[in-house]
Amino acid sequence: MEDPRRHSRTAGLLSAALGSALLVLTLPPQSAQANPPTGGHCSGTGKWWVVCEAEDDTTTPGTSGQGAGGNDGGGSSSDSSGKPPVCTYEKMEPQPPADSEYRLGHAADEKGAIFIRSCELTRDDGAGTMTDEQLVWVADGEEPPAVDPEAVAATAVSKMQLLGPDIASPRTAGRYTVGVPMWLWVDQTPTSYGPQTTSATAGAVTVTATARVSSITWSMGDGSTVTCSGPGTPYKGSSDMAESPTCGHIYKASSAKAQSGKFTVAATSTWTVDWQGGGESGQFTEIRESNVQVAIGELQVVR
Questions:
Q1: Helix (H, G, I), strand (E, B) or coil at 216
Q2: By C-alpha distance, which of 248, 189, 178, 249 is closest to 213?
Q3: How far are the Cα atoms of 26, 77, 81, 222, 274 from residue 282, in angstroms, in the given order?
């Protein structure tokens, strides 16, 4: 048995797994032609020979049943938040000797090397990121997947803690009436409207991402929706019940028959994220939502 202290980082990867849920994929060489095997229990075939560390029989965190670098359909894998993980590959130095279990079943005369794959995964509970590490075998002539700059951009966005719209109007305590124009607007903060700029680095790739709200769609609770390209205009008083010049709504019925006698107004913001780095650039969107309960009354005519 090899002394694991010779490979301290590898020992850290495998120490818990060796006594419990260590899984070594030892497929015949002729099967090593396809994409990486799927994650979790590392089932499937491929040129990537994987040891997975796990404390139980659940799927390896963040793999969502797919291995980094692709799946059988050629798509990219995603972490527990649905975003692609950021994975880097580091060649183990020195390489394990011929009789080491860290060679994952590969003979000393096989042409290839053991790499440590580290994937940074965005937690789906909003508590930041976590790192999943595995050992993989890379045959000579093959290259580990390059770092995906867009995935690094997604990591940068996860640091921003983007929120839903900071609704200034309508207010829960406000008094609103059928037929009277309602002005819709939001307060502009860095976390609820932007812009925000953050960078993230994985391996040799650094990406800078800038996020800003490009539109807000209001679901008014009465079956109607209003889409506004800006934050709306704050109401400053009007003698003739003028409509908002930028973003507003007029209710045609009261909320008396709605649950609790109030409409639920939901404001959904679309964040546009522009990123650049790693020799590439691109754009994607993030969606956030806020809501408020409002009562809509009817004007009573006294005769």
A1: strand
A2: 189
A3: 39, 19, 20, 37, 6
Q: Omega before 61 cis (within 30°)?
A: no
* Distances 253 to 181, 242, 243, 259, 297 between C-alpha atoms, Å: 13, 19, 17, 14, 8
- Distance in angstroms (rounded) separating the CA atoms of residues 158 and 127: 10
The domain segmentation of the chain, as residue ranges, is: 4-145, 157-297
Question: 183-226: per-residue pLDDT in tens?
Answer: 999 999 999 999 999 999 988 899 999 999 999 999 999 999 99
Q: Are 56 and 19 in contact (CB under 8 A)?
A: no
244 close to 184: Cβ distance less than 8 angstroms: yes
Sign of CA dihedral 222, 224, 229, 233: negative
Task: Give just the sign of the alpha carbon dihedral 168, 170, 175, 181.
Answer: positive
Cβ contact 200:159 at 8 Å: yes
pLDDT digits 0-9 by tens, 75-118: 334 444 456 677 888 888 888 888 888 888 888 888 888 888 88
Q: What is the pTM of this model?
A: 0.63
14 DSSP assignment: H
d(C-alpha 294, C-alpha 167), whole Å? 12
Task: Tell me which residue of 105, 101, 123 sits closest to 10, measured CA to CA.
Answer: 101
CA dihedral 87, 88, 91, 93 (to 10 degrees): -110
Q: How far apart are CA 210 and CA 286, in angstroms?
A: 12
* Amino acid found at 147: V
